[in-house]
Design goal:
This protein is 27% helix and 35% strand. The chain has three helices and twelve strands, in the order H-E-E-H-H-E-E-E-E-E-E-E-E-E-E. It has a twelve-stranded antiparallel sheet, with no helix packed on it. Helix 2 (83-94) packs across helix 3 (96-102).
């Protein structure tokens, strides 16, 4: 009887020891969890930097409308990267060769692209910005671009890097994508306003020696009116 009592007593003691170890282990887990939650909360509260590679903002219907990234993330709703949509919209207008040219265009950007409900790029802020939808830029452009409802660039402001030299340009384009009015500062010192119509072009400002705006390839200050098609000088008023 005494042996059974001792055995039972020992088993009870072992159970107590095990329960005590479990309690200690559970207490350690709870304390560790509490410390982790506190540190996490403290980190979120004090950390003011969010690090991401890209962000896509969708509208209420689930369409991608704002792309942010370096480079901007791919969006299935973006018309510029939808070959079938480009072919239907622009390929029919410019013919079969256009799609071959389009493959060489740069569509990426580091910055922000705002899309309309049909997926066309409407506003781009980037470094660099994408190529126009009707041709490649002559250099990387850093700035702001605003397009029409078919993705055609209509105005923009930025710095254009051409062979290592910067051109600062503010442009307003016609409905066919060609330049309508351009205010520019060129690397050679040429500074002026170009106005282009179907029949004439007007330059107002300073044209550096050798610049194409100068009627005689000499340094020029004043107003020049030219025949747009022939390139011939109509009026040249200096000073």
């Amino acid at each position: 009887m005494d042996e059974k009592f001792k055995t039972l007593k020992n088993e009870i003691q072992q159970l107590k020891n095990r329960n005590r170890k479990k309690d200690i282990f559970l207490s350690i887990i709870l304390v560790s969890l509490a410390v982790f939650i506190y540190l996490k909360h403290s980190s979120l509260k004090n950390d003011k930097i969010i690090r991401v590679q890209g962000i896509i903002v969708e509208d209420v219907s689930g369409k991608e409308r704002i792309l942010i990234g370096a480079p901007i993330p791919y969006a299935k709703n973006r018309a510029r990267t939808d070959t079938l949509k480009i072919k239907e919209t622009w390929g029919k207008k410019f013919g079969e060769k256009y799609m071959g040219w389009y493959k060489e265009y740069k569509h990426d950007a580091n910055g922000i692209v705002i899309l309309d409900e049909n997926g066309w790029d409407k506003i781009i802020v980037g470094d660099p910005t994408p190529d126009p939808i009707i041709g490649k830029r002559i250099g990387n452009s850093t700035g702001i671009i605003i397009n029409d409802k078919t993705g055609l660039e209509r105005t923009g402001y930025g710095i254009l890097d051409v062979n290592g030299s910067d051109r600062v340009v503010l442009g307003l384009d016609k409905s066919n994508g060609t330049e309508g009015a351009t205010l520019s500062v060129m690397p050679d010192g040429t500074t002026g306003l170009n106005l282009n119509s179907d029949k004439q072009s007007i330059f107002v400002g300073k044209a550096a020696k050798g610049n194409w705006n100068s009627p005689d390839k000499e340094e020029f200050h004043g107003i020049i009116i030219r025949d747009e098609k022939m390139g011939e000088k109509i009026i040249s008023q200096k000073n």
